[in-house]
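Sample entry (368 residues):
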Amino acid sequence: MSAELQRRAQSLLDGVPVPMLAVDAHARTIAANAAARLLLGDDLLDRPFVTILRHPGVVQAVDWVLAPDRHPAPARPEGLSAAPGCAVLRAHLGVDGRNIMAEITVAPLSLLIGRGASIAILDRSVADEAEQVRRDFVANVSHELKTPLTAMLGFIETLRGPAREDARARDRFLDIMEREAGRMNRLISDLLSLSRVQAEERRRPSEMLDLAGLLRSVLATMEPRARAAGVVLRTEGLDGRVMVPGDADQLTQVFQNLIENGLKYGGSGGLLEVVLRRINHEPQLRGPGWAVEIADHGEGIDEIHLPRLTERFYRVDTHRSREQGGTGLGLAIVKHIISRHRGRLRIESVRGKGSRFSVVLPEDMRRG
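Predicted structure, serialized as tokens:
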């Protein structure tokens, strides 16, 4: 193929945002756009296509588009359509040490360019993962709502039947129904809160607030609960004013959640520490910041659970969490709020020694 035709093919591909290559009639690569080089490497030109993508289904599709009279047509996956003379398929591709699910379209080159084929590679991994997250989320919400609803329906049926005249059973069942209804109400409230936080996540807070004052207010609210749990609240660095950009309502929710978790799951240690300290330079924030550390001395959390603690509905101890009134959404909400504030959440824990949750917020939002 002449240099002029190669230039035309390259010009065509350069305007496409997804990874795309072009091959000549002999299935040798004659052009590749920037996205393709980023995905597959720089050494793509003047190579047999089979040495670039070694997937048999993709190779078969290229062979068929180049010579449909000599090669069988590849099978078309259900739900995908292609123009006449084009092939489309889904394939798992090993790229740069990772495996991606790609949707690949092979089409003949324009006659103005010459005989050959174009190969477009659309990475569907992110979309597929998002769809799986959505399915898991719907399944989890359905399960979390169905369990108390089933219990309540059973008690209602019993109260209308065998326990109609049994005052003690009626009072006991009504107490349980009230508890289950409260659990559903908390779940729905947390779902609405998570939705609001996610909707605002890309909008940075613009107001300044006194972080030390906010923490003192939260601790004053949590003091009665700490006394009831037999936990001493010890603070450090909360005197004076510490001004940072932030949403007061959302950060109050963050620290209430973390302190409440410390009382629930770390209260056996009898001590909960809340420390506010300045960080002169936080590399991830590219500047100074303030760290709020909430540490308990309770049972701690096995290391295997730490990476998943902020996942929606993930619980270390499902039964205990539900008994304590947890919805499994609290730390997910915390994570999204901190992300909106361009901060960082760090979790450290040693089984038998307690846990430490650190919230690091930028001192200057322009750097965060």
